[in-house]
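[step 3/7] inverse_fold.run input=structure_tokens len=336
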């Protein structure tokens, strides 16, 4: 390989990798970093030019090191700040021009809500501004579906409610929106971020979060689609028919209750830690397709072909099927 082509080639590969991983929610890339850190590319190219005629191993190592360090800052840093940047989510444009948007001014909120409420079959209910959402329970509701969509957020679901659904949210960079509609006799509830991506700051008070409560009477189907996300669900008090989690990088802790006739749990992640707990008395089958991921399933019998079962699974009347897919994750299923 010609040494003068090394750095340009690595830069193109790095940019391609960022786009690919971000599109598949494996990473949550802050595009504002490109605006603030663009001089990094000048440094990369400059180092390559200075050492263009130097064929020694240490010169090549220096070139590669500068590229790796630069892309490390781009991917893992968060350098957006208070000055103007078209990538900075703190700024928005309307008929008054560019303005700061730390608190999401009321005019924009009204317009956004109108856009999301264009259908007669969809309603948006907000209690106490934008921080609490509720949906009343209608007697006779046998089944319900909850759709959760949006990364950069911590989702907590542990408590019950006499309502069908309650959610209390904290919003920083993005906003939550709640909508609902009926599909036949089944209410479909959706809690989502206005922007699909967000920035999650682990162990920080400035992270978007949603604390959710559900009614125990219906059978629930729950779908979570998120990027960099922390999920903490205790579903032991609920009857769950389907739980689907599609995430990128994050932490997913789920405690399941006893299965209905056939409960299905499917988890697909990129680079994540996944910890699922199931009751000791539950008949459970695990199927994995985990690439380079690690897994730990104590108390399960290895049936071969990446399939694991609890003792007596075949003859159990009610069963739980867990499917785990991941690129580079840590999967754990334990019994309690």
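[step 3/7] decode complete -> sequence:
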């Amino acid at each position: 390989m010609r040494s003068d082509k090394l750095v340009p080639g690595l830069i193109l590969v790095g940019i391609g990798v960022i786009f690919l991983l971000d599109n598949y929610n494996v990473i949550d890339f802050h595009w504002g970093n490109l605006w603030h850190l663009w001089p990094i590319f000048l440094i990369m190219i400059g180092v390559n030019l200075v050492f263009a005629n130097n064929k020694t191993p240490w010169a090549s190592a220096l070139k590669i090191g500068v590229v790796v360090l630069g892309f490390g800052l781009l991917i893992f840093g968060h350098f957006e700040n208070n000055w103007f940047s078209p990538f900075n989510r703190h700024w928005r444009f309307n008929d008054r021009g560019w303005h700061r948007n730390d608190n999401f001014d009321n005019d924009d909120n009204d317009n956004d809500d109108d856009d999301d409420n264009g259908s007669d079959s969809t309603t948006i209910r907000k209690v106490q501004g934008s921080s609490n959402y509720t949906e009343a329970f209608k007697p006779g509701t046998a089944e319900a579906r909850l759709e959760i969509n949006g990364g950069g957020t911590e989702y907590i679901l542990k408590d019950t409610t006499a309502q069908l659904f309650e959610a209390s949210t904290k919003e920083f960079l993005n906003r939550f929106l709640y909508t609902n509609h009926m599909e036949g006799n089944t209410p479909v509830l959706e809690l989502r971020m206005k922007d699909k991506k967000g920035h999650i700051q682990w162990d920080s008070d400035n992270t978007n979060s949603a604390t959710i409560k559900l009614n125990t009477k219906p059978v629930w189907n729950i779908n979570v689609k998120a990027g960099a996300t922390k999920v903490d669900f205790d579903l032991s008090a609920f009857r769950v028919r389907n739980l689907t989690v599609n995430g990128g990088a994050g932490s997913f802790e789920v405690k399941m209750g006893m299965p209905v006739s056939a409960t299905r749990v499917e988890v697909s992640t990129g680079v994540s830690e996944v910890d699922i707990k199931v009751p000791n008395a539950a008949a459970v089958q695990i199927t994995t397709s985990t690439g380079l991921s690690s897994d730990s399933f104590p108390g399960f019998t290895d049936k071969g072909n990446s399939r694991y079962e609890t003792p007596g699974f075949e003859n159990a009347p009610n069963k739980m099927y867990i499917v785990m897919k991941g690129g580079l994750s840590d999967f754990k299923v334990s019994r309690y």
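[step 4/7] annotate
The two ends are 56 Å apart (CA to CA).
Residues 57-76 form the longest helix (20 residues).
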